[in-house]
Amino acid sequence: QVQLVESGGGLVLTGGSLRLSCAASVRTFSNLVMGWFRQAPRKERELVAGISRRGDNTYYADSVKNRFTISRDNAKNTVYLQMNSLKSEDTAVYYCAADGRYGTRLTREYDYWGQGTQVTVSS
């Protein structure tokens, strides 16, 4: 069983930055592909970014490339999402996901989910 707890969400102005963290309660964190997804009101949950087990490979949604960076610290059982140049359309609940297939954009291919953290970008 994997428990995930996100933190770092909040209200930020357009153009600002936030860093999300996701702490995992699991002994084998380094065995897990990790991802970040988001869900805006009245929209489906969508992939934001994914990262390989060792953190040496990443992939992103086109909408966040060159603005967001996913990273992980396996010693701390934590995955991060650094979000820069935030836009109003980035407003959503952001979810951490664990144990997915690397490269997938499908929610059904990740087995564990956090509760989510709200990110609101306001002008």
Task: Give me some keywords for this one.
123 residues; mainly beta; 7-stranded mixed sheet; 4-stranded antiparallel sheet; globular
Explain this structure to me?
By secondary structure, the protein is mainly β. It contains no helices and eleven strands. The chain has strands at residues 3-7, 10-13, 18-25, 34-39, 46-51, 58-60, 68-73, 78-83, 92-100, 110-113, 117-122. Strands 2, 4, 5, 6, 9, 10 and 11 form a seven-stranded mixed sheet that branches. The radius of gyration is 13 Å and the shape is globular.
Would you spell out the secondary-structure blueprint of this structure?
Layout: E1 3-7, E2 10-13, E3 18-25, E4 34-39, E5 46-51, E6 58-60, E7 68-73, E8 78-83, E9 92-100, E10 110-113, E11 117-122
Parallel strand pairs: 2-11
Antiparallel strand pairs: 1-3, 3-8, 4-5, 4-9, 5-6, 7-8, 9-10, 9-11
Radius of gyration: 13 Å
Count of individual helical segments: 0
Strand content range: over 45%
Structural class: mainly beta
Low-confidence stretches are none
Distance between the termini: 40 Å
Q: Order of helices and strands, N to C?
A: EEEEEEEEEEE
Q: Which descriptor suits the 3D outline?
A: globular
Question: What's the pLDDT, averaged over the residues?
Answer: 97
Count of strand segments: 11
Helicity, as a percent range: under 10%
Main sheet attributes: strand count, strand direction, barrel closure:
7 strands, mixed
Q: Quaternary state, please?
A: single chain
